[in-house]
Write a structure and sequence with these properties.
The complex is a heterodimer of chains A (404) and B (315).
Chain A lengths: L1 H22 L1 E7 L5 H14 L3 E7 L2 H13 L6 E4 L2 H8 L18 H5 L12 E2 L1 E10 H6 L8 H13 L3 E3 L6 H11 L1 H4 L3 H7 L7 H11 L14 H9 L3 E7 L3 H6 L4 E4 L12 E5 L2 E4 L6 H11 L2 H11 L2 E2 L9 H9 L3 E3 L1 H5 L7 H14 L4 H14 L2
Parallel strand pairs in A: 1-2, 1-3, 6-7, 9-12
Antiparallel strand pairs in A: 3-10, 4-10, 5-7, 5-8, 5-9, 5-11
Helix pairs in contact in A: 8-18, 11-18, 11-19, 18-19
Chain B lengths: L2 H44 L2 E4 L2 E5 L3 H8 L1 H36 L6 H13 L2 H11 L6 H8 L16 H13 L1 H13 L2 H9 L4 H12 L1 H16 L3 H7 L12 H10 L9 H28 L6
Antiparallel strand pairs in B: 1-2
The chains are: A alpha/beta (404), B mainly alpha (315).
Chain lengths: 404, 315
């Protein structure tokens, strides 16, 4: 009897240890979002609660090295089951190589708009390779305390914007924190001011080939950018991203043109921020913000746990997931239906009623030289006055025509 | 023990020693083969294929080389980077090694505080390049930086420039930083070479009434030629592989407007891609790496041969 009991106990113990091991599918999930480890832990716990047979391990790599680490792993035939991908040209690099599983037909994408899916669709075959996760938006941040102290209200039009900037400058405050040392930050800056001058039609016209960047609308917009140079910090040519943030956080500069991902950092630094889209060309004309998809969730085509990975990807295309992304990460989720309790996010989401694609990232980062490299070099020269708007437009156009 | 037995024992010991040495040398040789020679060989193989991002496609022979050298859209970037590397080499030879030679000549005269100066000059060499790059990036910051602050206090506000942001000043600034980082090394090598010159050579010249300049030019300079050879070749290799300082101080794109672009940065951008500059292209990247290797290898050999031929023997 005692013998049987012992056997039973041993068997039960063995089963309890072995059972989860047999049933559980372990998925690996790679990302570049090191700052989001805790939040993804909670999101994954919610998924695992509904799918007890699957467990997901989130690994965040260093952001700058992520593309290299990921592409090297994929080229070596390994890599994670679930991949946090970037969008547009960066996604094309791995999707066109066949490393990702096409998702259309396998995942319900009905809560995503065509514009959003553009960011994760391979142009060559029209398949969707990732579920877009969040959008980014270029806005103008301003320090409300400085504006109040100077008796300034947020400007609506370009002329008001210049007048406000002059008033701040006269008061000894640097109007704009932005510099040009890091090329990408000056491209971001152009995303706030230029669309309202080149208008909502230009993106379609230039991507369809109906016009080029030498279009008078674009040249005018470049010329307007150059008018901002006097309101940037002294020595702005050498002001990099870190210095820009230090200037704005410390109250030495009153405005900062940046992406919506800056909100948390500014709030944590204790800046009393306000946000606005770039000013309109003239009173009553459109006031657009530039937006793009930041990336998506994809399945490794070589994964041995494809079904389980697809289950997780289906989960990322649902409203409950979008709600968690909004609440825990302060992202503007791509999937519809999430409501934000954060007033900052709500405000950015409201700006999307007049949005235009962030032009070079969305449409001209597929060939080399990229539109971004060309525009960044051109804007640096434009702001320092070493080239005119016409010359920059001609350089960008010639560079894009020669890109391959 | 007769003679033949003694010889045999000696031979056996020699053979054992050789086996023992071979045994000790095998692990480092294996490490070199696995981590240096095989990757080099694979870069050569990669450069002969067409790549779609990361996927190797068909064999295309030397097309990648022809593309980066003769395609007018790509070779302007290559030649710009190459020209910058040449500027780096020439400037470092004059500034970094020139200062080092002068300091070595001064230290060789055994001034008061010789040890102190020797340590101070060598100190930056032992610091990590990453730390130096970041530290000087902060010093050169147009708003918070030490350099511009000092210029303001000295009443030279109009000289306070955004050093790393202007195409005219970015590369010269980085070269000064690099010279500051490394000048202690050639100083020490030159000093050691000067110390090896027998004292009586210099004393005899002095007794004959030779000026210090003449002693430096006609006795010291020819006799430290082996040290000069080493420094020139190392500076050459370092200049054409220059990566850390420009990468840390101004990023992968060679900003502003390619004025700090180097072959090393261009290789990295081409092979691995970057957020702004686009996706990865292993084929062109590998071809560029192979070209860099061939160029540096051949010129280092020529330079070593030429410089060694002008060295004189001390007897």
């Amino acid at each position: 009897m005692k013998n049987h009991l012992t056997k039973a106990v041993i068997a039960a113990t063995a089963l309890s240890i072995a059972a989860p091991a047999f049933a559980q599918t372990e998925l690996s999930f790679w990302s570049w979002r090191q700052e989001d480890v805790a939040a993804y832990g909670e999101i994954i716990a919610a998924f695992e609660a509904e799918n007890p047979e699957i467990s997901v391990t989130y690994t965040a790599h260093e952001a700058k090295a992520y593309n290299t680490i990921l592409t090297t792993a994929l080229a070596g035939g390994s890599g994670p089951d679930i991949i946090h991908t970037r969008a547009y040209g960066s996604l094309e690099n791995i999707s066109s190589a066949g490393y990702l599983e096409p998702l259309d037909g396998q995942v319900d994408l009905s809560l995503l708009s065509a514009d959003e899916l553009l960011g994760t669709t391979l142009r060559a075959d029209g398949h969707v390779y990732a579920v877009p996760f969040a959008s980014q938006t270029v806005v103008v941040y301003y320090n409300m305390d400085i504006f109040d102290a100077q008796g300034i209200t947020a400007p609506d039009t370009w002329d008001e914007f210049l007048a406000v900037s002059q008033q701040l400058k006269d008061a000894g405050i640097t109007p704009l924190a932005n510099g040009t040392a890091d090329g990408w930050t000056v491209e971001i800056m152009s995303g706030a001011f230029m669309p309202n001058f080149y208008g909502s039609e230009f993106f379609g016209d230039v991507t369809s080939g109906a016009t080029t960047f030498e279009d008078p609308r674009y040249v005018t917009a470049l010329g307007k950018m150059a008018e901002l140079a006097p309101f940037m910090p002294v020595g702005f040519e050498g002001v990099d991203y870190a210095t820009m943030k230090a200037l704005f956080n410390s109250g030495a500069a009153a405005m900062f043109v940046g992406g919506s991902w800056e909100i948390n950092g500014f709030r944590e630094a204790g800046v009393n921020i306000g946000m606005m889209p770039g000013p309109s060309a003239e009173a009553g004309s459109e006031r657009m913000v530039a937006t793009w998809m930041d990336g998506g969730y994809a399945v490794n085509a070589a994964s041995e746990n494809k079904e389980a990975a697809l289950a997780f990807i289906r989960f990322t295309a649902t409203t409950p997931f979008a709600q968690m992304l909004t609440d825990k990460l302060n992202n503007i989720a791509a999937v519809d239906g999430a409501m934000s309790s954060n007033p900052d996010l709500q405000q950015v989401a409201n700006f999307h009623s007049a949005a235009t694609p962030y032009i070079m990232l969305v449409a001209f980062r597929f060939d080399k030289p990229t539109g971004s490299s060309l525009l960044q070099d051109g804007l640096q020269q434009l702001m320092t006055g070493s080239k005119t708007a016409e010359e920059v437009a001609a350089d960008v156009t010639a560079g894009i025509a020669a890109a391959e | 023990m007769d003679d033949s037995e003694y010889t045999r024992a000696k031979r056996r010991r020699a053979r054992n020693l050789k086996l023992w040495l071979a045994f000790l040398l095998a692990p480092p040789a294996a490490i070199l083969i696995i981590f240096v020679f095989l990757p080099m060989a694979s870069a050569v193989v990669y450069s002969l294929y067409d790549w779609n991002g990361l996927v190797r496609k068909e064999f295309i022979g030397l097309d990648n080389f022809a593309d980066i050298l003769f395609n007018p859209n790509k070779n302007v970037i290559l030649f710009n980077a190459f020209g910058n590397n040449v500027k780096v080499f020439v400037t470092l030879m004059i500034v970094q090694n020139g200062i080092a030679l002068v300091l070595a000549l001064l230290l060789a005269r055994n001034p008061r505080g010789f040890r102190f100066y020797q340590v101070v000059f060598f100190l930056p060499v032992i610091l990590s390049t990453v730390i130096i790059g970041f530290q000087w990036k902060m010093f050169l910051n147009p708003i918070f930086g030490l350099v511009n602050k000092a210029l303001h206090y000295a009443g030279l506000s109009e000289w306070a420039l955004p050093w790393l942001g202007l195409p005219e000043t970015a590369l010269p600034s980085m070269l000064l930083v690099n010279s500051w980082h490394w000048f202690g090394f050639p100083t020490l090598v030159f000093l050691a070479a000067i110390h090896r010159i027998p004292k009586d050579f210099i004393e005899a010249a002095r007794l004959d009434g030779a000026s210090e300049w003449r002693i430096a030019r006609e006795i010291i300079w020819p006799l430290i030629a082996p040290a000069v050879t080493i420094i020139v070749v190392l500076t050459f290799i370092g200049s054409f592989n220059w990566f850390e300082i420009p990468y840390i101080m101004n990023g992968l794109e060679g900003s502003p407007q390619g004025s700090t672009d180097m072959l090393g940065l261009l290789f990295y951008r081409t092979a691995f891609g970057s957020v702004s500059a686009g996706g990865s292209d292993f084929g062109s990247g590998s071809a560029l790496a192979v070209l860099m290797f061939i160029f540096i290898f051949i010129f280092s050999i020529i330079a070593t041969k030429y410089l060694t031929s002008r060295e004189v023997e001390m007897s």
